[in-house]
Design a protein that fits this description.
heterodimer, A: about 375 residues, alpha/beta, Rossmann fold, 2 domains, eight-stranded mixed β-sheet, three-stranded antiparallel β-sheet, about 20% strand, B: Alpha-Beta Plaits, Nucleotidyltransferase, domain 5, five-stranded antiparallel β-sheet, 20 helices, 37 strands, globular, metal-binding (chain A), Hen1 (chain A), RNA-binding (chain A), SAM-dependent_MTases_sf (chain A)
Chain lengths: ~375, ~850
């Protein structure tokens, strides 16, 4: 089901950017507009749309469903977190799941979504599947928004080499009237509003043919159904999960703790260096002094202000340097990560060497 | 301990070898159906890296039309090349890392029967190799797939073929024209019919072209790809060539480092079996972006030196990006560009980096003033020589900088996590195999291909050859084999050849006056017992400026000066470089630079002074100790390379050849070559002068020549065998028609995946120095062996691999092994056994000094001394 590819192969001369990109962009714009948290792509094929959507920062749950497990598996690893996602965990959480199953079947894992996209999907459905499709998507899943795209058969004469359908697997291709009446009927039946648009403009003079790809955007008219209502629809899980990736996120205590510890020690060390270089200035090593010469960065200014205002000065005692936690906490990055001072203390407890009263980070400088 | 101690420069990735596995004899001619490549349009320089997932997104943005015939998916792929067949995984770069198909043993008659040695005592060894047990008569079936009418696009070809999975099966690998299957189809030729979406009927002809036995190079590469696919299935992350486990990182917040544990794996045909060699690998990653690093550099060095420092620190490092799963090498920093700069997209439109990343990845670049990093695309196929631009804010650094390597505390903290002792290392490898064994999907994949592993590592016996006797001025010493060191034993014993220090300069800054005096007193105390006669030096005080040092050198060095001694107050490289450059080229005098700090500790000053005295003696042409070399009229050559990553992009080959019977004096030269130049031409000249010098010293030409060639990258063996060795022979021929010495060329490799563990007292220990392995884990097509010559205090000892690629010596393997081990005793900067034969280490030292500090060939007046130590 290599639909993106095959279409672009002949239409490349016609559409710029290629039509599949325009469809993806359409979905992306929709996501930007409505900021859904949970998005499902039905008929996700090689996951190219999901791959694009994972960069949308509003999305926290991303699911894909396809009838063919192999086509999903081929590239599903590109949906895994990148090394950098582990190195710098993001604020938002993100879970990407791929299911193997049919849109003619109900599975509870598809409940609670804000946006469901069916891009170039329905024309691949056999008659019985197509019949069940509205009930599954609009009746059962019942997301706030549904996007459905499908080829517009009126455009086919304008495409070179298209005999009957644009793809051998297409079971039908509708004209604008057919699609719209199906969509309007579905919307009426499940209490959605629907608007029609498309991508791939017809050439001048042929406007009547309509868009190459016709798109319907359905918006649910009734408010969000609460949890109880969903549990009224008990169904057994019929989809098979073929892939699941949980992205590292600062919402996860483990990653948050690592990030905080790393930031605390790093900040404390910068403060320590400043302090030590101040001491060293009286020393006799010209090179060292040069090395730590305060530069024009805002850091030293900031530190200076802090020390003056709040009397949270780091100090040296014997072989140890004390950097007050309060000073560290006042740094924006640490502050943003922890939120409260109590949280900071809790997160670093036992992981960072503190003074006996727990108010400062301690470094031993004996061996330096 | 002295001023020269610097981190070893990291060589860049070596250029790939010329050939893949094409010379596998059992490959029939492939009907070449590779869709023809259209000329590249829009070869855009400085484009941002594209999404790897997109069509055409293979390292560069290009004209869309031109992309289709060539695009390949990530992951498994099998591709037909021009004459050769090679398999690739990620990156699609044609490389033969394991030098498969280079069969050098067949040309050496005397090792056809056996290449094993016999001396020494037996030791029971375990290794990190695991036997591959495939089905009986397991074979891989290779099919050619043809389309009628001809289909151009690879993906279309795949789509059409895979409509027939009921015929070809679910387990397959297809690159567009070659199909690999684990089972044989019913007929030799199968015809299938598909229909395109245009309703066009296509006949697909699947023809059996080859049955690959499990040992064929293609099959082996195929195993490797499948194994890597398994690692991916285990949710390990690929970084560079290896796979790492991201879910359980070790973080070292003190240095903002993170260490990921991972695995290197390779499946190869070894002596009797195909085996998986698995080793633990650690990836050091940094929890900060390149931009963060730039900021902290700025605050450390200030505006003035900022750009230079950035270049020095960052160029050559590998970065990861926030938006794709690729690694890039930083080749340059474009300070005139910024995220506001624009580039031309494949469709011809201009877009700024800011806009591009916003649109493509929803990433907001916050600092619009940062420079842009440049990474060269190394792909040579299709004449692509573009580069990509990277935004520092979106890149994370991997690995260590030279500065970090020099940071003792950091390396100490790292070593705790990365230097695993034998038992622990073996446990970690066991964990990987356990994952593989436990994972259902992985097991299924293995079953589909009919592969299985022994989950117990291979055990066998190795030999520990006897320790060498150290000779020094009529005295003979044994050393404790456990430490492989004879510092204590030889202390206070006269050297073989002590060069008197009659006239020398001692240069220091005012602050180091006391240090200079302490050093002098210590030297006077330690030198007499060594037999070194030392006069008082000219003590010269200088300002702590480079020019001041140079002026003193210009004014005070005379033809009588034996050596110049400089006490440096800091490890600033420019001063050291300037001094070395002047004294190695313009005014060829041996020199010794020492950091004042090294001399400042009273408790160690005597040890330090001893080592300095020895080093000075070597630099002036002295000799310290020797081992017994039974061969007569032998010249031993060592070659190593240094690749300058920062300035000049030069490569330097160090060439060192012995001059005397006892192999205690060396002739040293180097070849400085710019990028793209062939190394071997220079080496030929070196060999000629070395022979001339040898004959001057010995009044005849050597009858045997041993070349130890270090600095050979993975996949370069073929070039070496087919190009470099013939040049050596040519060179020898050119000396005279009646001159035909016996030549042995041995490739020395320090970075190997094999690890050996001695089973001692029920536990696993590092094997003792002198352990030789020449069975089981060596390669049948090579005359190769491993020697563990050095000892390590912590972690696992790495064996050195020796591959004799050319040998007319007629010596028994045992003798070649013994000679090699003997030469590991002859490095005068370390009174112990080292990891490689001394000439290789000398060559490395020389190349490193030239590459780091001098940048041109040193004066040949110095060539008979170890002035670079």
């Amino acid at each position: 089901m290599d639909k993106n590819f095959q279409e672009e192969f002949t239409q490349i001369t016609r559409f710029k950017p290629p039509l599949y990109k325009q469809r993806h962009q359409f979905v992306k714009d929709l996501v930007e507009k409505y900021k859904p948290k949970k998005v499902a792509d039905l008929g996700c094929a090689d996951c190219s749309l999901l791959r694009m959507l994972k960069f949308c920062s509003c999305i926290e749950v991303l699911a894909g469903l396809d009838i063919c497990a192999n086509v999903m598996k081929e590239k599903m690893h590109t949906l895994s977190p990148l090394p950098v996602d582990y190195l710098q965990p993001s604020e938002r959480s993100l879970t990407v799941t791929l299911h193997h199953g049919s849109v003619a079947h109900k599975d509870p894992c598809m409940l609670g979504f804000d946006l469901v996209t069916c891009i170039e999907l329905i024309e691949h459905l056999e008659e019985p599947e197509l019949k069940k499709f509205p009930e599954v998507v609009f009746g059962f899943m019942a997301p706030s928004i549904v996007v459905i795209s499908t080829p517009n058969s009126e455009f086919n004469p304008l495409l070179p080499g298209v005999m009957l359908y644009r793809h051998p697997d297409h079971k039908f291709e509708w004209n604008q009237a057919q699609f719209q009446s199906w969509a309007l009927e579905t919307a009426r039946c499940y209490d959605y509003s629907v608007e029609f648009t498309g991508v791939g403009h017809p050439p001048t003079g042929m406007e009547k043919a309509g868009f190459c790809t016709q798109i319907a955007v359905f918006i649910r008219k009734y408010p969000q159904t609460g949890e109880p209502l969903q549990s009224e629809k008990p169904t057994e899980a019929v989809y098979k999960t073929v892939f699941k990736a949980v992205y590292p996120s600062l919402k996860d205590e483990k990653y948050l703790q690592n990030a905080v510890i790393s930031e605390v020690i790093f900040t404390a060390q910068i403060i320590k260096h400043r302090l030590m270089s101040k001491h060293e200035e009286y020393g006799n090593d010209p090179e060292r002094k040069f090395k730590f010469q305060p530069s024009m960065d805002c850091f030293s200014d900031y530190l200076g202000k802090l020390v003056v205002e709040n009397n949270m000065e780091p100090f040296v005692s014997g072989n140890e340097v004390y950097v007050p936690l309060a000073t560290i906490f006042s740094f924006p990055k640490v502050n943003r990560l922890c939120g409260t001072f109590e949280k900071l203390c809790k997160l670093i407890a036992g992981k960072v060497t503190l003074s006996s009263d727990g108010s400062a980070v301690v470094f031993n400088i004996e061996h330096e | 301990m002295t001023g020269r101690a610097r981190a070893r420069g990291r060589p860049p990735r070596q250029a790939p070898a010329l050939l893949g596995v094409g010379d596998a004899p059992q490959q029939p001619q492939q009907p070449q159906q590779q869709p023809q490549q259209k000329p590249q349009q829009l070869q855009q320089v400085h484009v941002p890296p594209p999404q790897s997932e997109e069509p055409g997104g293979h390292g560069r943005l290009r004209g869309f039309e031109s992309v289709l015939p060539e695009k390949r998916p990530e992951g498994l792929q099998v591709s037909s090349g021009l004459q050769d067949l090679s398999l690739r995984d990620r990156g699609g770069r044609r490389r033969d890392f394991h030098d498969l198909g280079v069969n050098t043993r067949q040309a050496m008659v005397h090792v056809q029967e056996s290449k094993t040695g016999f001396s020494g005592r037996m030791v029971k060894l375990t290794t990190n190799h695991f036997r591959l047990t495939s089905r009986p008569q397991w074979a891989l079936y290779q099919y050619h797939v043809g389309y009628s009418p001809e289909m151009e696009a690879r993906r279309l070809r795949s789509a059409l073929l895979f409509q027939h999975e009921e015929h070809i099966g679910k387990t397959h690998a297809f690159d567009g024209s070659i199909l690999f299957l684990p089972k044989k189809l019913e007929n030799k030729v199968t015809e299938l019919f598909s229909r395109t979406r245009n309703g066009e009927d296509v006949k697909i002809t699947v023809t059996l072209t080859n049955e690959l036995p499990p040992t064929s190079p293609t099959c082996l590469q195929f195993y490797n790809i499948i194994f890597r696919r398994l690692l991916k299935m285990l949710n390990l992350q690929q970084i560079g060539r290896n796979y790492y486990n991201p879910s359980d990182p070790v973080s070292i917040p003190n240095h903002r480092l993170m260490v990921w544990l991972g695995f290197t794996s390779s499946i190869l045909q070894y002596e009797d079996n195909i085996m998986l060699c698995a080793d633990v690998s650690h990836k050091v990653l940094r929890g900060e972006t390149v931009l963060d690093t730039m900021h902290s550099l700025h605050s450390q060095v200030g505006e003035e030196r900022f750009r230079d420092t950035c270049a020095k620190e960052l160029i050559g490092l590998i970065v990861l990006t926030r938006y794709n799963n690729r690694t890039y090498r930083i080749d340059d920093i474009d300070w005139d560009n910024s995220p506001k700069g624009t580039f031309r997209k494949s469709d011809g439109s201009e877009i700024s980096f800011v806009e591009y990343y916003r649109k493509q990845y929803n990433i907001e670049i916050s600092d619009w003033m940062q420079p842009v990093l440049i990474s060269q695309m190394k792909r040579k196929r299709g004449n692509i020589q573009g580069s990509v631009a990277l935004i520092p804010e979106l890149c994370s650094l991997t690995g260590l900088t030279d500065k970090m390597r020099n940071d003792f505390n950091m390396m100490k903290d790292l070593a705790i996590h990365t230097r695993l002792p034998p038992e622990q290392r073996q446990r970690e490898i066991g964990r990987l195999l356990n994952y593989i064994q436990k994972d259902d999907n992985v097991q299924k994949e293995l079953r589909n291909w009919g592969l299985s592993f022994d989950y117990k590592s291979v055990s066998f016996t190795g030999r520990v050859v006897q320790g060498e006797k150290i000779f020094q001025s009529g005295n003979m010493f044994d050393y404790n084999p456990q430490f492989a060191d004879w510092t204590k034993e030889t202390r206070g014993v006269p050297l073989i050849r002590a060069v008197p220090v009659d006239s020398w300069l001692l240069i220091y800054t005012r602050r180091n006056y006391d240090v200079a005096n302490t050093l002098l007193q210590s030297l006077f105390r330690v030198t007499p017992s060594m037999g070194i006669r030392m006069n008082k030096p000219s003590m010269i005080e200088v300002d702590d400026r480079t020019e001041a040092y140079l002026r003193v050198l210009q004014q005070r060095v005379t033809p009588e000066t034996n050596i110049v001694f400089c006490i440096l107050s800091s490890s600033r490289k420019d001063k050291y470089d300037a001094i070395k450059k002047y004294l190695c080229t313009d005014c060829p005098i041996p020199s010794q630079c020492v950091l004042a700090r090294t001399l400042s500790k009273p408790q160690t000053i005597m040890t330090v002074a001893t080592k300095i005295a020895l080093q000075m003696n070597c630099k002036m042409g002295g000799e310290l100790w020797s081992v017994e070399i039974p061969l007569k009229q032998v010249m031993i050559v060592g070659i190593d390379c240094y690749h300058d990553t920062v300035s000049g992009k030069q490569s330097i080959a160090g060439f060192v050849a012995s001059l005397n019977q006892t192999v205690t004096r060396w002739f040293s030269r180097c070849v400085v070559q710019s990028r793209g130049q062939e190394l071997v031409d220079g080496i030929k000249a070196c060999l000629q002068t070395a022979l001339r010098n040898w004959s001057k010293w010995n009044k005849c030409l050597p009858s045997r020549i041993f070349v130890y060639r270090d600095g050979v990258g993975d996949g370069q063996l073929n070039t070496l065998v087919n190009y470099e060795v013939p040049q050596f022979l040519d060179c020898l021929k050119s000396i005279g028609t009646d001159y035909s010495p016996r030549l042995t060329v041995i490739v020395v490799k320090k970075r190997v995946g094999a690890r050996f563990f001695a089973e001692i007292g029920g536990g696993l220990k590092n094997p003792p120095p002198g352990t030789v392995v020449d069975t089981v884990v060596t390669r049948p097509e090579w005359y190769d062996f491993f020697i563990v010559s050095q000892t390590v205090k912590n972690g696992c000892v790495a064996p050195t691999h020796y591959n004799v690629i050319y040998d007319t010596s007629q010596l028994k393997p045992d003798h070649v092994q013994r000679l090699t081990y003997k030469l590991c005793h002859m490095y005068y900067n370390w009174s112990g056994i080292i990891r490689v034969p001394a000439p290789c280490q000398y060559a490395h030292k020389l190349a490193f000094l030239v590459g780091q500090s001098i940048h041109r060939e040193p004066n040949l007046m110095l060539s008979d001394r170890l002035y670079y130590l």
